[in-house]
Amino acid sequence: MTTGYLMIDRLHDWNVSTREARQIQERFRTQIVERPLPGSVETVAGIDISFNRGSRDLFAAIAVLSFPELQILEVARARCRVEFPYVPGLLSFREGPPVMAAWERLQREPDVLIFDGQGKAHPRRFGLACHLGLLMDKPSIGCAKRRLVGDCEMPGIDRGDRTTLWHNGEEIGAVLRTRRNVKPVFVSAGHLTNLKSACKLVLACCRRYRLPEPTRQAHQLVNKYRHDMT
After folding, report:
1. pLDDT tens column, 16-65
2. I need a labelling partner for 5 at 20 to 30 A (CA). Which of 88, 92, 99, 207 fits?
């Protein structure tokens, strides 16, 4: 694979202040491309982060699944010590280094990335899925358990029901019901995809559970990895 850190070096350093981090988000959000996903998606990666409260060590896991079968093909894990503080809206500056370290350990490049976090549904329209999707130069989707910003109505109770998430008069994401009468998820486009494609793929990846199978598997992997390493 092409090393992600070469791309990071061309864009920005991780060792920045919170003020510089916001400036980076404002600068690079203009490079995000919204377009439909290609019709030839064969692999989808789920990406998740875990950490112990009060610790500077962050753990990342990437689970690459076949699509549409949703069988695990490969996993990668990494542990990094980070200095950047926990600041809502700037989490990609904490979570980016361990994710990119795990990314470099993969033997295959997945076609699409689903992050347990936000994409465009972010105050500066540059959440984790946008930021790391741009670094990796891969189609990316944010699928979060809760919203960061925006206003919405709840969708109907049936699987596939959705409503729009709005912020300052702009459509930034969707509230998507992935299982009947179960809490919805908050989906937003990252890089090289759009909201319609993102919702379609997330729904296709939700078979038996509320969360898409790639991020569900990554969540289980990273928590086990953190438990085994600490």
Report:
1. 999 999 999 999 999 999 999 998 999 999 999 999 988 899 999 999 99
2. 88
What secondary structure letter does DSSP report for 206? -
Angle, helix 128-136 to helix 18-28, in steps of 10 degrees: 70
Q: Identify which of 73, 2, 142, 230 has the alpha carbon closest to the alpha carbon of residue 222.
A: 230
Taking the domains of the chain in order of start, what are their residue ranges? 4-229
Q: In which residue are the tokens 């076609």 written?
A: 111
CATH of the domain spanning 4-229? 3.30.2170.10
Q: Which two tokens stand for residue 87?
A: 């600041």
3-state DSSP assignment of residue 49 = strand
Number of neighbouring beta carbons within 10 Å of residue 111: 18
Q: Span 109-135, mean pLDDT?
A: 97
Strands 140-144 and 112-115: parallel
Look at residue 21 in the predicted model and tell me its pLDDT: 96
